[in-house]
Structure formats: structure tokens, C-alpha cells
Design goal:
With 168 residues, the chain is of the alpha+beta class. The chain is built from five helices and seven strands. The chain starts with a helix and ends with a strand. It binds coenzyme A.
Length: 168
């Protein structure tokens, strides 16, 4: 069976409009991914992530993990980056450009990524307890809450753990 990374590479399709392109993330996307992360987590939303991500660490995650992104023209709209650990894909981070949020891009992109997970596989993620847009997104995609880590983030907020299991 192909790993998620291989599946993603071979499953390129064009969602919605012609100008939108979905493809796997490559190391050369590192600077754009890093810039989008900085924009998406600039404090406006008040939901800190677990660590500070340097460009080097973002590039390293793309190299070691598997990622999928949505582009409009040459511009990065949204991405999901995961790390494959056996039958579990642990979500490292995901974001949609703040100018394009609330338009269904992440629902499409993450929904597509979930379709690539083989039967019995699971996707895990953790999210700040206050990040309600993300909570709604995950529930809508079929994730269920499986745990909590109190005072996990720097602001004292708890991390809520979600899991999605592939049943085919
Ligand atoms: C969370 C995030 C990735 C959602 O991306 P998005 O492209 O805006 O999401 P979509 O437009 O595809 O919306 C999908 C679902 O998420 C929920 N949602 C998204 N934005 C929302 C908002 N502002 N308020 C409430 N629900 C929201 C809704 O349930 C929505 O589906 P629906 O409109 O059909 O009900 C985006 O807000 C983001 O990048 N946030 C900053 C980074 C972040 O928090 N990442 C997650 C950390 S774990």
C-alpha cells in the first residue's frame, strides 16, 4: 500500500475553479509556508501554537512529513502538513491565508487529505481550546475529541486533542 505521502503525490486534481491548484508541498515551498504561518498566527487570532517555527524547522517538517497545499496562481492559499508515524498521521500545522478564510478552502483541502488515508489509518491533531473556528472545521470533517492537555499553551490555554479514523 502506498504511504499517504505517495498517494498525495499521485492524486493531483483540480478543485473548484481552474485557477486553483492542489498539489503536495515541496521543500521549495518552505518560505511561502513559513510566511503564511507567520500571517495566520500573528496574534490577531490569539490562539498560540505549540512552538516558534523558524524557516529551517518548517523546511525540515516538509522534508520529513507530508504536506498538501492549495494555490491560486502562484500564491499559497492554504496548506496542511502532517507527520506519518505508522498508521497515524500527526498534524503538524495547517493554515489558510487570512484573506481567504471562511471560503471553504480548508474544508476542501483537509477533506481531500483525509480521503488519502488508508483504511484503519488515523489522523491526530491538537488545537487551542479557544480556537473555535478550527474546532468547527474538525468536527465538520468528522474528527472527534479524544483528550485534553491542560495549560499546554504559553497563554495557559488547554490543548484539545482530536482524532479522525479512516473507515472505508
Ligand atoms: C482554522 C482555519 C484553518 C480554517 O480555515 P478556513 O479555510 O477558513 O476554513 P473553511 O472556510 O474551509 O471552513 C470550514 C469550516 O470551518 C469552520 N469555520 C471556519 N472559519 C470559521 C469562523 N471564522 N467561524 C466559525 N467557524 C468557522 C466552519 O465550520 C466551516 O464550515 P462551514 O462554513 O461549512 O460551516 C483558519 O481559520 C486558519 O488558518 N486559522 C489560523 C491557523 C489555525 O488556527 N490553524 C489550526 C491550528 S490547530
Amino acid at each position: 500500500m502506498k504511504s499517504l505521502k505517495e498517494n498525495i503525490k499521485f492524486a493531483a486534481t483540480s478543485p473548484r475553479a481552474k485557477r486553483l491548484k492542489r498539489r503536495s508541498l515541496a521543500v521549495h515551498d518552505g518560505p511561502e509556508v513559513h510566511a503564511l504561518l507567520e500571517k495566520a498566527y500573528d496574534g490577531t487570532y490569539g490562539y498560540p501554537i505549540g512552538g516558534m517555527w523558524s524557516l529551517e524547522s518548517v523546511v525540515s517538517e516538509i522534508e520529513k512529513g507530508c504536506g498538501w497545499a492549495l494555490f491560486r496562481g502562484n500564491g499559497l492559499l492554504a496548506f496542511v502538513l502532517l507527520r506519518e508515524i505508522g498508521l497515524v498521521w500527526d498534524t503538524t500545522f495547517l493554515a489558510t491565508d487570512p484573506n481567504f478564510q471562511g471560503q471553504g478552502y480548508m474544508r476542501d483541502l483537509f477533506g481531500f487529505v483525509l480521503q488519502q488515508v488508508p483504511s484503519g489509518g488515523a489522523v491526530w491533531l491538537e488545537v487551542h481550546e479557544g480556537n473555535l473556528p478550527a474546532h468547527r472545521l474538525y468536527r465538520r470533517l468528522g474528527f472527534r475529541r479524544v483528550g485534553m492537555r491542560p495549560q499546554y499553551y504559553r497563554d495557559g490555554g488547554a490543548a484539545i486533542l482530536f482524532e479522525w479514523v479512516a473507515r472505508k
